[in-house]
Amino acid sequence: MIPMTSFIPETAPFNEQQRAWLNGFLAGWTGITESVDGNAATAMAAGLPSADTNVEEEEDFPWHDDSLPIVDRMELADGKPLDRKLMAAMAQLNCGSCGYLCQTYSEAIASGDEKNVSLCSPGGKETKQMIKKLLAEAGDSVQPSSNGNGSNGSELNGAAANGAAAWSRKNPYSANLIESRPLNQEGSAKDTRHVAIDLVGSGIKYEVGDALGVYPTNCSDLCMQIVDRLATDSHVKVATPQGNTKTLLEALHEDCCLKDPTDELLELLVGRTPNADAQATLNHLLAEGVPDGFDVLDVLEVAGESTITATEFLECLDPLNPRLYSIASSMKAVGDQVHLTVGKVVYEREGRVRKGVASTMLADRVNCGESMRVFVQPNHGGFTVPEKDATPMIMVGPGTGIAPFVAFIQERAARKASGDNWLFFGDQHEAYDFLYESELTEHVHSGVLSRLDTAFSRDGDTKVYVQDKMRENAAELWAWLNRGAHFYVCGDATRMAADVDRALLQIITQEGGMSEDEGKAYLKTMTSEKRYVRDVY
């Protein structure tokens, strides 16, 4: 859309890109536009565009492809404005774990409205480092926006009974734990929990497909080991990464990320460590990155007899971000509760037990009746049950990826939806790892779950996964797609979801008699129609 005239004076405090956007917006708002051939077009008095009004094409983001490495994504964004370069640095999953989408998170950082650059958990260290590099190159051009629209999941999800508080990422609700029940049977190598949380009196509402944000706390033993390594008083008052004043122990427990050491911490310790070997190791970690599972305490142990104050130490830590979990319940079935499916993460490295901060909190460190801070993160991209109850639904969710589909099935049962439902579930051993077996079996018997196909990878000589079960049922799956079925995937983006995507494309091309390009076009259409939706991380 080309504005007929400039509505924004040259002296206005906007750059060229902002002035062009505002001129276009105001031109459209006043109903005055100019078509390509120069003929003026005037919008209808009701505010609707006329038939010959040109519509601005949607911006193309060639780097928005989660299969591309970050080097290729940054090359595709070369020469673009800062917010687009920042977007290219993201993991491109639109997973919502940051409370934004990739585009809106990058725009919030570029505007200065979002200061936390460590929210893209799938992108990890390489994303965070690239963001910092881009911001350093941009210098003073990063300015806070004046419109206040940089919100990371601050949508209001409910209010206290007296209307005094609205709950959001920035104002979480203190909810009590009802239960944390093991789902795996004795003999399993895993510890997966069904977690139920009380929302009575909160006013919080959620839809199936939404996620619950949980603010975790760090393990007290780890916090005390860090205090001992710093050789300081655990009760000394410090400023947290969020700007609050607490004791050092409280700050480490509640506000600081102790998992991923920052480059700032490594750089500080290099200059404070008298040992030449320690300096060399720290410099190597700076250059090559820290190994998987290498945490803040590991860095302090490498640094040895370094001398840093508690305040200096905290200034080099990232904030402890909330963890997002797919909601495993429908409010139509459970009322004022919210359920999660959480895989407890515990492993040993270098003779020390390492713990997933949120998963072990939910499994071990919060007792029934004790509280945690939570908020609802609305689903994105249409990841929810079909709007029409008669529409068929295919769900692929191995392991903890089953969570949202437990909610989907509960929702369809409560709505007495007539549409067929097909679930593919997989894990290691049927005897130990068939999560929600009794509930799913009941849904099969009642007819709510039309088909249930399982793949237990370690029960036979040959490993079988959910994508293998899809291929075994290719003709039936293709028939469901031809009936307009929606296809959903939840779980690991790098391996499972990629394998499922390849299997789905293969089924479409083979059963539909299409070329690979035609199959990809079919999948693209399904995606644009929100019939192929993924919640991957």
UniProtKB/TrEMBL annotation:
PROSITE patterns: 4FE4S, FAD_FR
Catalytic reaction(s) noted: hydrogen sulfide + 3 NADP(+) + 3 H2O = sulfite + 3 NADPH + 4 H(+)
GO process terms (BP): cysteine biosynthetic process
Enzyme Commission number: 1.8.1.2
Keyword 4Fe-4S set for record: yes
Key word 4Fe-4S present: yes
InterPro entries associated with the record: 4Fe-4S_dom, CysJ-like_FAD-binding, FAD-bd_FR_type, Flavoprot_Pyr_Nucl_cyt_Rdtase, FNR_nucleotide-bd, NADPH_Cyt_P450_Rdtase_alpha, OxRdtase_FAD/NAD-bd, Riboflavin_synthase-like_b-brl
Annotated ranges, domain 4Fe-4S: 77-137
Alphabetized UniProt keyword annotations: 4Fe-4S, Amino-acid biosynthesis, Cysteine biosynthesis, FAD, Flavoprotein, FMN, Iron, Iron-sulfur, Metal-binding, NADP, Oxidoreductase
Listed transmembrane segments: none
GO CC annotation, single: cytosol
Superkingdom assignment: Bacteria
Signal sequence segment: none
Cofactors named for this entry: FAD; FMN
Residues annotated as domain FAD-binding FR-type: 170-386
Protein name per Swiss-Prot or TrEMBL: assimilatory sulfite reductase (NADPH)
